[in-house]
Amino acid sequence: MPVLKKIVVQNFRNIALQELEFSSKINCISGNNGEGKTNLLEAIWCLSMTKASFGGPDRYNFRYGSKSFALAGDYRMENGTVGKFAIEASEGEKKVRRDGHFYQRMSDHIGILPIVMVSPSDTTLVSESGEERRRFANSVLSQMDKAYLNDMQHYNQLLATRNTALKNSNPDPAFFDVVDYRLQEYGSRIHEGRKNFAKALEPVVRHYYELLSGAAEEVGIEYRSDLDKSPLSELLARSREKDMVMGFTGVGVHRDDFVFTMNSHPIRKAGSQGQQKSFLVSLKFAQYHIMKDSYGFPPILLLDDLFDKLDMNRVGNLLKMVAGEDFGQIFITDSNKVRVTSLLDSITSEKACFEASGGVFKIV
């Protein structure tokens, strides 16, 4: 399993230049709010996924006054060798390297360094639109399945082409016949992948939620798609006239959603903040479980401010579950240094602790 041994961060958010070496087990980063704890975790995420977790433009990660950032990481790979990965991003350009060689396609890097993040921003999975939940599903499936990632890329390219053509004053029907046929090809496989993912995910989420909350409520995941009703080719044909009026494609897997429920009601409306937080942590730990089974080894786990809205007993139980004999590398942040170190002392002696201050990290 890939283990991050060393990272070099330059001009990434509030981090000017840092070189840090990590434990292969648990790494805790403490410090006050705004000092750079989350920024370090985002840098680690970026090395795996080639972009920040929120999916915004690279310029949002440039340190103030800078027009670029650079990240480099040394990983111990599954075969015992050291893999050297680097990302260089500037305005309008980004390059990803492995062992000194640039990838021809950045997407070829996705899945090489599997990773899972639990963070306060996960609340958008409940509070925001279906786009956030699709982004979550795509992030997980793209790491585990290259074919799914390829299908998503082709589908999005064809969708953009179709939407552009819909805005033409005199569109060619034959053009739409060809594009819609290809969208059906990719869309049907995406639909099947997401349906299987939701089916596999739900019982694992329920398991973790039961451990976390004592099974006071029953949670669930419902996958909803236009393709549940008819093949995509039929849906596109029936909606073409309306799409031409609206200027965009109104049906397809780009409209899919995953509805999170509690006692058969949307958790967004029925769940308290604590219940929603417990569900989201259960969701991410279920993701960790599924990815671990898929790869045959655990992914890197980033736990950002896990104590928010959860008591120490629940957090301790969760950490003990993932910190077994076969657990992978974990990074955990907390504003309370005493709290996080005392909890980790009860789990393992194999750890490294850092304190963040103004984008500078010191071993403690």
Number of strand segments: 15
Mean pLDDT: 92
Discrete helix count: 10
Strand content: 15-25%
**Lateral strand order in the biggest sheet:** 2-1-4-5-6-7
Rg from Cα: 22 Å
Assign the structural class, choosing from mainly alpha, mainly beta, alpha/beta, alpha+beta, or little secondary structure. Answer: alpha/beta
Output the helix-strand order.
Answer: EEEHEEEEEHHHHEHEEHHEHEHEE
Q: Give the CA-CA distance, first to last residue.
A: 27 Å
Structural commentary:
The chain has 364 residues and is α/β, with parallel strands linked by helices. 43% of the residues lie in helices and 24% in strands. It has 10 helices and 15 strands. It has helices at 37-49, 124-127, 130-144, 146-166, 173-213, 232-246, 267-270, 273-295, 312-322, 337-345; strands at residues 3-12, 15-21, 26-30, 68-76, 82-90, 93-98, 101-102, 115-118, 219-224, 257-262, 265-266, 300-304, 330-334, 351-357, 360-363. The strands form 3 sheets. Strands 2-1-4-5-6-7 form a 6-stranded antiparallel β-sheet, with helices on one face. It has a 6-stranded mixed β-sheet with strand order 8-12-13-3-14-15, sandwiched between helices. It has a 3-stranded antiparallel β-sheet with strand order 9-10-11. Helix 3 (130-144) crosses helix 4. The model has no long low-confidence stretch (mean pLDDT 92).
